[in-house]
Amino acid sequence: MDALTEQILNSDALSDKxxxxxxxxxxxxxxxxxxxxxxxxxxxxxxxxxxxxxLHTLFEAIPLTEQDTLLDYGxxxxxxxxxxxxxxxxxxxxxxxxxxxxxxxxxxxxxxxGVHRDRLTFIHGKAEDFIxxxxxxxxxxxxxxxxDIFRRVLxxxxxxxxxxxxxxxxxxxYPEDNTVFYIERHTGFRLxxxxxxPELFERDRREKFCIxxxxx
Length: 216
Fold this sequence. Notes:
Layout: H1 3-9, H2 16-27, H3 52-61, E1 69-73, H4 79-88, E2 91-96, H5 99-111, E3 120-124, E4 138-141, H6 147-163, E5 168-173, H7 177-186, E6 190-196, E7 208-214
Parallel strand pairs: 1-2, 1-4, 2-3, 4-5
Antiparallel strand pairs: 5-7, 6-7
């Protein structure tokens, strides 16, 4: 068991915030922050990091490999990339619209001590304008933007697949009903798994991961 996972499993007495601060300190980063500047819009939702406990639940079910490259839309301060890179040594790309959060992610990268930190990239820009590299094998979305933008992101994903056929896994956390409807009716992605977040799903049915796959 890696040291990061061990800390999460032995954290029952800690709140999510206290655990986040502990893990951030372990990784030499700062990601425990929620966007409160009021700049979130109908099309681009506010930044809120996925809790480390929730990330643990997800990646126990779908572990990554060193050959994977994860694309995180609405990456904020970079928590997802740092977490997976430290645990699995995978590549990760973060796309963030906020210049403030992008600069903070770059500062985190400067402080991060992971052995495979050279496999992390953070990009400032619009999700719908990003051309998806052929090495991307997983895409993560925590409800970062509207369905209109998401449709363009999915079109870009299918173009990347056409350029280089491969299995692409799409991970949606807290999915919107209209987003799920569009994926299942208008794309080549197929639902392969649903992972409920322990303790939260009973109060809110959207507290789950929907896992879709394209290809192979």
